[in-house]
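hey m, so remember when u said the tokens were messed up on ur end? i reran from scratch. heres the input so u can diff it against urs
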Amino acid sequence: MLSRIGLGTAQFGSRYGVSNRRGRPSSREIAAILDLASAAGIDLLDTAAAYGPAEREIGRWRCVKDVNSFRIVTKTLPIDALVVEREHAVQITERFMRSLDFLCHSSLHGLLVHHGDLMLRPGAEHVADALRRLRAEGLVAKIGVSVYDAAELEAIFERFDFDLVQVPISVADQRLVNSGHLARLKRRGVEVHARSVFLQGLLLMTPKQLPDAFAATVAPLLARFVRACAELERSPLETCLEFVLGIPEVDCLLAGVNQAAELAQILAAAAADRPTAVDFAPLAFENSRLLNPVHWSLMS
């Protein structure tokens, strides 16, 4: 199971996550996290050009350690234009070459379009062509896209063939599992990475810890989730991990942490022996707006 866990690094560049009370970890703490991940056998890091200094923190660690412990997936520079021009593809390529320098690598495992809607805009073929060229040149093994929902996923894969996709999956968000989209992706030979496994840490909080902005909406659901985990004789952390790791179509579960101690807890929970089969379906959240952090600021 541990071989299917990857390390998300959004926290390396900013105060990421609704449960994050510590802010961005120090370079020393980031090094401790990477040391533990490497020692534990985690072999995949997920990062992005938009994650501030995250790529440079990873590259600094690699250069100091002089090891190549991780396969790395990074993401393209975000593009705001409504119409994609050839110059945008050039910008993406140039920024990817900077990512290689920052990461202290000559090639990466994957390159994802950071926001899937980019591939639905006019001119998106310029981006696809740029990614294909990078793959053909051996600078990246797999190219793909990060998406938010099934509709976006379907629309993109109708237009483009990709090797890698990052999707939101959690015990609270079972939509892509139930719809059959994961199974269809695997039949096409697409590598699947699951993100938002903890809903930015929301599923690991108690109702009293919720931000005031949406506590009234979320607290009853979270309280029900906590009670259900207790009835299953599992912690919320164990429940979140067990659900996603139990999905055979998921090649990698991405977990982000702010401290090495948090990663140690994740590794211990993932390694726990849970022989009893569990029906996780009742734990899914029905409110789809709650499943996308973009909408959280609008809740009250």
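this time it looks ok to me. The first strand starts at residue 5 and ends at 8. if urs says something different then somethings off w ur setup not the seq
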